[in-house]
Amino acid sequence: MSDKIFYVSTTGIVVKDGKFLIAKRSEREKAFPGKWTVPGGKFQHGDYHQLAPNKGGLWYEPVERALRREIKEEVNLDIDNIRYVTNITFVRPDAAHCLILSYACDYVDGDVVLCDALTDHAWVSLAEAKKYDLIDGIYDELAIVDKQLNRK
């Protein structure tokens, strides 16, 4: 059995009036310090275990609950209409392995208030996002969501 640390995280591409919320990570962060990203974070036991499971001992939609919690904690926004975008894996500088489940979601309510792990934010179009020092892959995810929005 491997003794590697493995995290499961979820990120949300928050859409408001056709723009995307991006946020700058603190220079103190272990992974991608100072880079721009979308809000999200690690899946936690409490995202499902405090709730009653169904008769078979299963919990439904824990990832969506985790995403709502993380976006509220990180940027103080309420979201809805959560939809899958993609998933990625990477190894952090501290050798922890990460699985990221990426979703798009719609802004519902709230004013952006950043947590301590974030230092700045912007609402950007896809073209404007190119001007920011984004974590590799974030622009591609924004492009996927932009394409989906423009199909409607």
The percent range for helix content is: 10-25%
Biggest sheet layout: 7 strands, mixed
Number of strands: 7
CATH class: Alpha Beta
Count of individual helical segments: 3
Examine the secondary-structure arrangement and name the CATH architecture. Answer: Alpha-Beta Complex
Return Rg in Å.
Answer: 16 Å
Give the amount of beta strand, in percent. 35-45%
Structural class by secondary-structure content: alpha+beta
Care to describe what's here?
The chain has 152 residues and is an alpha+beta fold. It has a single domain, classed as Nucleoside Triphosphate Pyrophosphohydrolase. The chain has helices at 62-75, 126-129, 138-151, and strands at 6-16, 19-25, 36-37, 40-42, 78-91, 97-109, 118-124. Strands 1, 2, 3, 4, 5, 6 and 7 form a seven-stranded mixed beta sheet that branches. Strand 1 (6-16) and strand 2 (19-25) form a beta hairpin. It is globular and about 50 Å long. The mean pLDDT is 91.
